[in-house]
Structure formats: C-alpha cells, structure tokens
Amino acid sequence: MACSQTLNGLVNDCAPSMGGIVEVLIANFADVTAVTVSDNLISAITMATSAKFKKYGFPRNTGSLSSNYTIDETTGANFVVSDLVLQFNRMETAKRIEITALAQGELAVIVKDANGKYWFLGKDAPVKATAGDGLTGTARADRNGYSVTLQDNSLEMPIEVSATIIADLLPAA
User: Fold this and answer.
1) Which one-letter DSSP state was computed for residue 127?
2) Which of 97, 65, 59 is nearest to 84 (CA)?
3) Which stretches of the chain score pLDDT less than 50?
4) What is the pTM of this model?
C-alpha cells in the first residue's frame, strides 16, 4: 500500500534568516494541561492554576536547537529528536541547583530563535535532560560554567508557537 501525502512545494525564500536562539522558556511538563494547534501553529497553551513558564538567560551565541528525523523503514520508526543545548557561565550554587532541577525534571520548553519565531518542545512527551557538565576551565580565559542538553522525542518537528500567547505564559513583570 502506498503512503501518499499532499505536497504543496516550496518556493525559494529570499527573506533574511539568522541562526541561533535568544530565549528559552521552561515549565514542568505536568503543568501544561493542553496545547491547541490551529493551522499548524500553536494558538493556545493551557497551564495548571498559577503555573507559568520561567525564562532562562544564557550568553549570546552559546545555545542551539537541532532537530533530526529518525526513520527506519524496516521497523516503521519515524520520529524527530530535538536537542536543545544551553550554556550558563560562572559556576555558582544557584545555577548548580537549577541545572540539577532541569536534569531531573520532565519539562515543556519554548525556544525563541534569532528570527523571532517561538518553537514548542514537549508536545508528545516530556523533554528530558540527556547530558550536562560543569567546567572550571584551565586557563584564565577559559569558560567557567555549566551546560545542559535537553531532548525532545516527538512525532514531528517542533511546532511554531504564536508570539501573541507568550506574555500570558510568563509571570507578571
């Protein structure tokens, strides 16, 4: 049996594009009670009472999000693995405690890329840490700090989140 798809084609996009990520928002997976997708865009995220996403700041040009298909015709496996890598400079107690919480948690994550687009991780299953480290460096100019890799295993590439809903997902300023 053939697996037919509706194909629409893509035109060459001449709009400017910039690499990297600029902001990450993280919540406990259990606190996200519903995700509404309309026209292939997340138009609403419902949170448990008083739960909010938290912002995570990191130095410019140190974070990345990569998504890769895993396809095995023999077993029928077809899913996407997305890895979010974050670095936090300067080893200190507050960061160590937060990195430990991220490493042990089941998470939902929103990533803002350098083009101003928001992407959701954790739609099909919790985002979980798969790696991390703390480094003092050797020389005075070496990086001192922590890094953590958070991984999402999903049925599809990360889905864009409407920028209009982000403010409601964060604590009041």
Assistant:
1) B
2) 65
3) none
4) 0.90
